[in-house]
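Lecture 7 notes. Example A: sequence first, then its structure tokens.
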Amino acid sequence: MKINKLKISLGDKLLVDISFDIISSLALVGQSGSGKSLTLKALLDMLPSSMKHELECDSEFDLKAGKTLSLVPQNPFTALSPLTKIRKQFFTGAKRVNELFRDVGLDLELLDRFPPELSGGQLQRVVVAMALESNPKLLMLDEPTTALDPENTKLILDLLKSLQKKDGFKMLFVTHDMNSASYLCEDICVIANGKVVESGIMQEILKSPKEDYTKTLIEANFANREFRE
């Protein structure tokens, strides 16, 4: 899947002007305000009405056909209704829900609990299961481990790796965390001020970054190298 052109504007101001290729798993990395979240919202057609966007892409699937795209949000605590049992927050049948729960490593008895009764790690697994409910072609991840401790972060990243191998979807991981990005993704696109600064194979960029901006991100994030391979 290749995004040949994505432009996002607010009035006469061009906020984002980028292109990138999602071969298997791509990390879209940048500091706060770089344009990565706007990119995600544009692909999901969730930009505010005040913003306009142009999108040209080459893809083996239609971005607007059914639920080919799915999102794992940043905060599972706000993604779920606290007053509704987990089971009732799925749209598919019981057999499929049970299968999804097994895929993400959760006990079926948790389906009859309310979200506040689950831990942060369990809730993130729930929203991963929900994101896979429609068998998406592209799974988009919006900082999905921000609210988790290091142990649960690694568990979620390992889970996503195994699910991608099993189900064959592509991944777009939007993050500022180079550490997690390098653990999960094969390729990287670094953006700043709505422009692509550097892109390519993850391990090659990590070993020999060309831009100072990329070097700064790497140095800041690898103070904790817990997940780096």
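Example B, a different protein, same format:
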Amino acid sequence: MLAGTGVAAYTDAAIWWKAALALVVSLALQVAVNYANDYSDGIRGTDNERVGPMRLVGSGAAPAGAVKRAAFLAFGVAGVAGLVLAATTAWWLVAVGLVSVAAAWFYTGGSKPYGYLGLGEIMVFVFFGVVAVIGTTYVQTETWEWAALYAAVGVGALACAILVVNNLRDIPTDTVAGKRTLAVVLGDRRTRLLYLVLVVLAAVAVVAVAAVTSWCALVGLAFVVLAVPALRTVLGGATGPGLIPVLQQTGLAELLWAALVAGALIACG
């Protein structure tokens, strides 16, 4: 999201209240998908044997109905902010919003959740990378920007890397539960290599953004300061709880990527 905002600022077309609403949509959908995932996995019993952070439904800390209501409340917040953006930009954005909500719910919800079919990483890349960044840029500029696409690849790659680590950690329990994530399909070794590929892709995306905007954007490569320790842990063979710190490191690396690229484009614009 920050990357998309930075691209818009570089073109002297940033509309900050729209950027703020786009951020609300993004954050609300992130909260919603986490609650929805907690609810759906919890009622399926997938979280009965949990290695990672505590889940509300699976641990019994909160009733399933309350978690489901929290998910739909977050969806509602995203919907209201999204409707304002659509009304002031283009009504076809409503369709994008509805597809995004459906993707968030059916990740682990419904009778055939796509997260159980090895498609989670693809959808995270699409919705938390491509849709989020290009959408943020479009509601401000109403134009197509190649820089937004390249930024979307970088942000999406790191968002995808977070899920890859999460699913790498859960390979043993997901296999028992019948949850065929991409990590289960690829296996331990190839999943670790996929994480490396995604981090490298994020670095390449910084260069691509700089090439079509300003070379100031190369400061974004500093995200590797946080990514390298995570890479060492993943490629070093850590398992189970040993992978939990990587989730935080990768998330912070993504935030740093976006903040540095956006800040550089604003400063040099």
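Note on Example B: Residues 162 and 251 are 7 Å apart (CA to CA). The radius of gyration is 18 Å.
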